[in-house]
C-alpha cells in the first residue's frame, strides 16, 4: 500500500511538473527550435529577451498593473470583510454571495462585459482599464480569504476597541490589520500572482501598452522558439518565488 502511495505521488508530480521541466530545459536550446534533440546549453535566448525593449516594457507594465490592482483589491476586500464579519444585516448573506460571485464567472465573460461597458462610456482600452478588470477578479479572492480569517476573537477585540473609544479608522488600522497580517499578505500575493499571469482580460482591455502575457502571445504568433521558452521560464520563476516567500514567511508564521 505504501509503495502504491509513493507511485501515485511520483506520477502526480510528474504529470504536473513535466511540462514546466521541458519548458525550462529547452529555453537553453542552442538551435532556433525548442524541439528534440537538445543542443546546448546556451544563455543567448535569455540575453536576447533581456535586451528586447518591448518585452521589458511589457514586463514593467505587468508588474505595475499587478501591484496596483492587487493593492486596490486588498483594501476593498479588507474593508468589505471587516464590515460584513462584524455587522449582521438582513442582506448580509446576499452581499457576501454578490462579492464572491465573480469567482464563478469565466474571465472571458468578465472581459467582454467590461469591454462593452467601457466602450459605452467612451473609455479606451489601456493599462488602467486592465487594472480595473484585475480588481474585479481579485476582489472576491481577497474578500474570501480575509472573511474566512476573521474569527470570534478578532470580532471581540474589535468590539472592545470601539467600546474603549477608538474610532473606526483606528480600529481597522491598529487592531484589525495587525491581527489579520498573515491573511492580508496571503491575499495580496495571490492577487498579485493572478494578475501577473492573467491574459484574457489584459488582451481585450489593452491596446498599445500591453502586459507580459499579451507580449508572449504576440511572440507565439510567429512560431515557437527557445526565446518564448526563456520568457516562460522567467515568468514561472517569479511565480515560484512568490509562493516560496509565502511559504517561508506568512504561512509558516500562521501555522506556528
TrEMBL record:
It is found in: Cell membrane. It comes from the Bacteria. GO terms for biological process: transmembrane transport. The chain crosses the membrane at residues 6-28, 58-81, 93-115, 127-150, 170-192, 230-251. One of its GO terms (cellular component) is plasma membrane. Gene3D superfamilies: MetI-like. Keywords: Cell membrane, Membrane, Transmembrane, Transmembrane helix, Transport. Residues 59-246 form the ABC transmembrane type-1 domain. InterPro entries: Bact_Polyamine_Transport, MetI-like, MetI-like_sf. It is a multi-pass membrane protein. Belongs to the binding-protein-dependent transport system permease family. CysTW subfamily. This is Spermidine/putrescine transport system permease protein. It comes from Roseivivax lentus.
